[in-house]
Each structure stands twice: as structure tokens, then as C-alpha cells.
Amino acid sequence: MIRTSIPRWRHAxxxxxxxxxxxxxxxxxxxxxTTIALAAGHRATAGSWGTARRGPGASGFVQLLNFGSGFTxxxxxxxxxxxxxxxxYRGPGRSTSRHQPxxxxxxxIRGRWGRPREVPGLxxxxxxxxxxxxxxxxxxxxxxxxxxxxxxxxxxxAIEVRGTWHAAIPVPGxxxxxxxxxxxxxxxxxxxxxxxxxxxxxxxxxxxxFLISERSGAWTKPHPVPGLIGSISCDPAxxxxxxxxRPNGLFAVSGTDGAWHAARPIAVPAALxxxxxxxxxxxxxxxxxxxxxxxxxxxxxxxxLAVTERHGSWGTLSVLPGTTGYHAINGDLADTMVTSLSCTxxxxxxxxxxxASDSYGEYDNIDQARPFIAxxxxxxxxAARALPGxxxxNRGGVADIASASCAxxxxxxxxxxxxxxxxxxxxxxxxxxVAAEIRGAWSRAQSVPGLAVQITGINAGAFISCSRAAxxxxxxxxxxRGGFPPTRLWATFRG
Length: 495
Hints:
Blueprint: H1 8-24, E1 34-39, E2 52-55, E3 63-64, E4 77-81, E5 84-91, E6 102-109, E7 112-113, E8 117-119, E9 126-134, E10 137-145, E11 153-161, E12 164-165, E13 169-170, H2 174-178, E14 183-190, E15 196-202, E16 209-215, E17 218-219, E18 223-225, E19 228-234, E20 240-246, E21 249-256, E22 259-260, E23 264-266, E24 276-284, E25 287-294, E26 303-310, E27 313-314, E28 318-319, E29 333-345, E30 348-359, E31 365-377, E32 380-381, H3 390-393, E33 399-408, E34 411-419, E35 429-438, E36 441-442, E37 446-447, E38 455-456, E39 463-467, E40 471-480, E41 487-494
Parallel strand pairs: 1-41
Antiparallel strand pairs: 1-2, 3-5, 4-5, 5-6, 6-7, 6-8, 9-10, 10-11, 11-12, 11-13, 14-15, 15-16, 16-17, 16-18, 19-20, 20-21, 21-22, 21-23, 24-25, 25-26, 26-27, 26-28, 29-30, 30-31, 31-32, 33-34, 34-35, 35-36, 35-37, 35-38, 38-40, 39-40, 40-41
């Protein structure tokens, strides 16, 4: 299958991103400075969050690399070990241009932040994907324009080996397959066995979609797959599973240490033909759960779908209960976005998303966004519902549960943002929130401690990572009110 354009769901991701940018009224092109905020690294009592506070930083443009919308499930926070994390973001580089900020990382080692570092060669990359197999061994990838032909995009990746970032280069092996054909990255994951995996496609009559693996700078040959890979997940032992969509159905392919098995079909009822999978989370080599979507934006929002693999056998795709029936505001179109999926044991998962009402015109705007959260218990999905306490905070009508992470079944946490009264297309004041699930019961959403001042910006709550051993860490960004205040990153710990 030859691809001549970005797949439909990628267009939806881009449109949703632009909608959030417009409604929140935050132009990061004029940001004047950056600092890092973090919370004290002490262990807190169950259910309590530490106070966010400032840390090291630099001046210039900043943009977190997670937009909290669409089937990308990009996560700008990679925590391969408890409290050993890397935050990926766009920030100031050697160039003085505010329109081309550098790709940067900052590490969190045993609860303490290091200094921000620039990743060379990624300044022009977009649709970024990244992860870490362990501290000091990470991969950042995406598509960037070819220097000689600006209309042609090439898949490119930068590798961190033993704590040193190597400059981004075109993904090895693709040029031999497609000559000068364009290519792109659609998903990425890293495993505990030090392998990182990229999925993507190349515009060439003989090679369409592929998987390719990397370890310490050594790349395997591209492995062809029968359709577009939407997501990859690696279990705690290092085995990885990728799920994707093809014109005649859905499929999954699994592998270990850079070697892949044959793709397996996933059963799709006739009424759900045309569905796409965009998120997967695996707890072992043969136990995974995937989330998908069916339908396009319209008067009624697209459906959210789910399918689970147990002991190596995939079930049948079905509609996620409680996610249907959302209608747009008069004159708008309704849309659905899945923002996160986290599983800790076979059939034990949490997913988040939101329904949105979008208006169109000279500018794209989200006029309403209603987040939902759903829990899978012993393989059965409970009906999606609102997060307790979020509606009371969300006086502006636009909110997003941007990220969820679980430490064990029934013990999870989420972060995101809500808007204050007076939110409209020109200005929208927002604040980040956090909430925790303890032994199966969700606490009420609360503002991040230490960020009580009124703030505005994009993705005030961005991403979260939880572990059994060290609780949770949430990271986000915000921009202060008035003039041209700096955009700042924050982090808070729980447990």
C-alpha cells in the first residue's frame, strides 16, 4: 500500500492540537524564558501530592512534547526505573530563532533534576516519539523535512548511548528500500532488554509499513508489516507487541530483542469494520489490551473500541461502554480523543479520553471538552464515567485528562488541565490537576499544590508515571498571566 499523505487519524491529531492551541490562546512563539519546576522528592502519605516548586532551567521558548490528544499517546516523560526519568521538550538552543527551538531533555535521577541538555539534529522534527530502555539509553524519533527537498519528509532518530546523545540521522535501512522516497514514524517503544522499536511507513511501491529495532546504536533491518502501526507496548520482561490497522481489518505482531513474528489478525464484527487501533498496553508477551476508534467527527462523536488478548489469544473488538451518544453543540462537530491507556495485569487497565465539540472558521476551536475515564477489571470494561471532582473545577467547559499511569490494579493516577470561568476563543485561563485511585476508589481531582495562581497556556497537565516502588511523578507546563511571562515546567510527586 503506497501512502501519499498522512493517515486520517494523524490529520485528526493535528486538528485537535491546533484546536487546543487556539482555544487556550497561548502563543508559545513569544515566550521569553523558561524554568523547571519540581516537587520535593520526599515520600508522601498515600493520596497526597507534594508541592510543585521551581528547579534549574534556561531562558527561551519551551513546549512540552505531549499534546494530550489523539491516538498518538506520545509521552514526554520516560521513567524506566522508579524516580529515574527523562523529560522531553522543546526549548532554547544555540540559535536565537524563537521559531525553531531545540529539542531538549532533562533527567530526574533518584528524585533530583539534572541540567537540561540539547539533542542535536532534532530542531525541525515533528510528530515526535521517544522512550528510554533505562537511564542514559533513550531514543527520540519523528519526521523532518529533507534538506534538499522540503516537501519530502524523512524518518529520523537520535540515540542516547551511556548518557550521551548522538546527532539525529535518517533511520538506517529505509533509504535502501525506497531510494529517495519519503518516510515517517508512527509509534515507538523501548523494552527492558535495551531494545527500542520504531514503527512507520515509507512511500515506495515495494515497502509500505514497517517495524525496525535499535540497541545501543545498532539497527536491525526494517521488518514489513501488513498495515499502519498505531501503537507499541513492551512488557516488563522485554517482549513487545505492536497493533495496527489495514484496509481489511486489524492485526497484532509481537517480538523480542528485535526479532518479529508473523502478524496475527484481530476479529472485527461487521458493524465495526473500518476501525483503527491507536493504543496498546501489555503486561506480558501474551496479555495485552488495545483501544481504537470508529467513525469521523460529526453531529455524534466517533465510537471508542477495545479488544483484549489473554494467554496469546485476541478477543473480538467491541464498543467501550459509556463512550457513545455524545452530541456536539449546535453548529459544531463532535469528536472523540483517547489520551492514555495503562495496564498492570492481564485484563486490569485504565484508559482516559474526552469528547469534544469543535467549531470551524478562520480559527479552529474546541468549545467544549468532556473527559472520561474507564476501568477494565478482570477483562471486563466498566462504563466510562467522569473523574470525580473535575466538573466542579472545570468552570470554563474545556478539560482534558491528558495522561494516566497505574502502579498496580486499582492504584493509578491521572493528570490534566481544566479551565476557569470566562474561557473563550480569545483567552482561556487553565490550571493543572492531579487525582489518584487508591484500592479501586478515585479521589477527587485537585489543583496541583503550589500552582494556585491563575495561569494560562497549553497542556498545563501533561503526563504522569507511577510505579509500585516509588509512587507517581507528574510533569506539566504552564504560562503565567499578563505580558509575555515565561512558560514553565512543573513536577509533583505522590507516595
